[in-house]
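Q: I'm writing up a methods section and want to include an example of the input and output format. Could you take the sequence below and give the corresponding predicted structure tokens, formatted cleanly so I can copy it straight into the document?
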Amino acid sequence: MTQLAFQKRMNKTKKYFVLFLMMVPGLAYLIINNYLPLFGIIIAFKDYNYSQGIFRSEWIGLENFEYLFKTTDAYIITRNTILYNGGFIILNLIVGVSIAIFLNEIKNRFMSRFYQTAILMPYLISMIIVGYLVFALLSLETGFINKTILPWLGISDISWYSEAKYWPYILTIVHIWKSAGYLCVIFLATIVGIDNEYYEAAKLDGATTWQQIRTITIPLLMPVVTIMTLLQIGRIFYSDFGLFYQVPLNAGALQSTTNVIDTYVYRSLMTLGDIGMSSAAGLYQSIVGCVLVFISNYIVRKINKDNAMF
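A: Here is the clean output for your methods example:
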């Protein structure tokens, strides 16, 4: 490197020194919380012994992974995890986009802010509280549905917490109620950012509101929808632990429809205390999620290169 080039680089470093300094807290947070824990991956390949620690525990290869696949519940927990998350991704996107478009059409600013707050509020509520709210609705003895809604409809009481067939619908409704507001805010921010000249030109051509939504709003919203979908696909093997554990109140009779990989690993960990097995499950979920993101992004890239994430 010549003296002149070195001097230019030093001048550029001095010019942006403050910006580099501002990066330090973020980089430190990223390294400490996202990269240092990666060393814990080796636990998935060891028979972890508390007295010997991570490095001195015995290597056992893939035995921890066999636990997940040899169990009789492997099919059920994999099926539940994929079907629930697949359904959540599709329904959340449909509901989130629909609500965002609806809110964008409300011209009264106060009412628009009120609806946004009301829709986002469930996202901020702890899943433990949500579990008790659901219990207040579904309890056999005091639940609002059993004591008010069902008698009004002429239907006898239902023991919701002992009949598994209702819970795919209950969990789906609870998840959409809690999560759709977060996606809605992201989509609404994108819609608000669309240049108003598109809509004015469409109005001059005589386009109706629905035609403006179909030909302007939805196409311009698709890149954000695609990115949010890809991000959610990356976590399709992860489950909302609180939703599947706290909301059904860990009822044993419901486990055929509420048991997913995360709750299964948690229950096994509480029973066996095997950290290696739980680490293997986490690594398995991460690898599958990463592969699915690459595959989904490849498909999106083939369809529309501009909508791909990378």
